[in-house]
Amino acid sequence: MKNTPIDAVITWVDGDDINHKRKRQKYGNTAMFNAEDIAGETRFSSLGEIFYCIASLNRFAPWLNKIYIVTDEQDPKVDSFIKKHFPEKQIPIEIVDHKTIFRGYEEYLPTFNSISIESMTWRIPGLSEHYIEFNDDLILTAPVTPEDFFTSDGNVVCYGSKKCYLLVKLTRLIKYRKDGSKKVTFKETMLNAASLLGERLFFIKIYHIPKALLKSVYEKYFMEHNEHLTRNIAHRFRDHRQYNPQEIQYLLLNKERRCTMRSPYTNLLYLKPKKLGYILKKLERFSKATETKFACFNSIDQACEKGRKAIIEWIERRVGLND
Q1: Which residue, 155, 158, 230, 308, is most buried by CB atoms nearer than 10 A?
Q2: For residue 300, what are the CA distances in angstroms to 37, 55, 94, 128?
């Protein structure tokens, strides 16, 4: 991977923006807003995670070619923040609007659906063949190299594990919300992807870790199966019939023996917004994991005030913002 350009793509939204709220209200309904897995407030919350994500890239992956931030008519205004903390060199940043990646498919905008958006990031103009996709709640927590994402012989690195399709599919049959409708879960979207490709033996369970991807794999698959693309982006809000696009890519590459599997367990720090005691114990353990490379701080907005403060202080220390 020497001298091969690798970009980072971050999907981001500021759900507190009044214009974004108005759009959600126009296209959504009360049932959707009350369902956390579809359109609950936490899905759009922004507490500055984008700043920490970008800071971690500059700190631990300065070799990146470019950072693209995909937004809906918004700008996180990170330039001055990054220049302040990384005055000598910053990775170039470009804001990409949904209208750009949905060109030719504008009838599906506006969208408030991360699955739909991730199905289209490969259409960013100028995007490198090799890129790494982040949600804004993901950060790097230790130095990484290109080989942490793409092997020297060109394979994509997937931090995941193979699971029995039928066994997991059976256990998902009981995953319904209180109103009797089907839940939208991360695992369900992976199963849907396997089903779409006709895979009945196994699927690849992927985790909340930055995803290494190849632009050409999406381009070829969606050119040949445009109906699969439109099926996924037709939902403005998350829907249980959608599939995980990264799962599609990894399953396709696995068939070609171009997907290298690595354990997620030794490479990921994952924290849920539970009680303060849980958060403090987790952060203490995280502090000892000095070589662990990735972290996901899921729904920080749902943690208590002291918990949020502790999380942010830990992140700032880890990425060197309070040195």
Answers
A1: 158
A2: 16, 18, 26, 31
Beta strand ranges found along 98-236 (DSSP E): 130-135, 138-140, 156-164, 202-206, 211-214
CATH number of 6-147+208-239+264-318: 3.90.550
Contact 108, 234 (CB under 8 A): yes
Q: Cα dist. 162→145, 205, 211, 313 in Å?
A: 25, 6, 16, 36
What is the DSSP-derived secondary structure letter of residue 3? T
Q: Which two tokens stand for residue 45?
A: 């919350």
CA angle 82, 67, 184 (to 5 degrees): 110
Contact (Cβ atoms closer than 8 angstroms) between residue 194 and residue 247:
yes
Write the burial class of residue 215 (CB in 10 Å: 0-12 exposed, 13-18 middle, 19+ buried). Answer: middle
pLDDT in tens, the chain (323 residues): 678 999 999 999 987 889 988 998 898 777 766 666 565 555 555 568 899 999 999 999 999 999 999 999 999 999 999 999 999 889 999 999 999 999 999 999 999 999 999 999 999 999 999 999 999 899 999 999 999 999 998 899 999 999 998 888 777 666 555 555 667 888 999 999 999 999 989 999 999 999 999 999 999 999 999 999 999 999 999 999 999 999 999 999 999 999 999 999 889 999 887 899 999 999 999 999 999 999 998 878 788 889 989 999 999 999 998 75
- DSSP structural state of residue 155: P
- The C-alpha atoms of residue 118 and residue 133 are separated, in whole angstroms, by 8
Domain ranges of the chain: 6-147+208-239+264-318
Contact between 12 and 78 under an 8 Å Cβ cutoff? The reply is no
Strand duo 93-97 + 138-140: pairing: unpaired
End-to-end CA distance of the chain: 32
- 8 A C-beta contact, residue 240 and residue 182: yes
Extended strands (E) in the chain: 6-11, 66-71, 93-97, 130-135, 138-140, 156-164, 202-206, 211-214, 259-262, 268-271, 294-297
